[in-house]
Write a structure and sequence with these properties.
The chain is mostly helical. Helix content is 40%, strand content 0%.
Length: 136
């Protein structure tokens, strides 16, 4: 979803009203850059963008302090989008890992485990990897 100028200004106003500590992070610039790069791809509409922002900005850690120190990951995929969606099935899905189709390619737990034990290069997270092909 591409934000209009007015929607972007409203979103920044709400963001800074909830989290004035984010002023140094320049959330207006962050939203402008996200909008120029394709918009808020996980937002179904402006109402969803507001609900996701509220969930993101007010999430707290086990100690009761804010879990999100900056607004920088607001536009990225996360539970703040999925938990506030009115139609979760309409959200864009990440591509599946080529070796582990039950995992999302960009963050496949199985591939990362292989990488951590030295069985897969980091360049092949989410991609097909055959160790015997690289040994030759």
């Amino acid at each position: 979803m591409k934000l209009t100028d007015q929607e972007g200004q409203r979103l920044v106003s709400v963001m800074l009203a909830m989290r004035p500590d984010w002023i140094p992070n320049k959330p207006g610039r962050m939203l402008l850059e996200a909008n120029q790069a394709g918009g808020l791809v996980f937002a179904q509409d402006f109402g969803h963008a507001l609900r996701a922002l509220a969930a993101y900005a007010t999430e707290t850690g086990p100690d009761g302090r804010p879990a999100k120190r900056t607004p920088n990951l607001y536009t990225a995929d996360g539970k703040h989008w999925t938990s506030t969606a009115t139609e979760p099935t309409a959200l864009p899905q990440q591509p599946a890992c080529e070796d582990h189709p039950e995992q999302e390619a960009h963050n496949c737990r199985c591939c990362w485990a292989d990488h951590k034990v030295g069985q897969r290069p980091q360049s092949h997270i989410g991609k097909h990897f055959n160790e015997s092909e690289t040994a030759a």
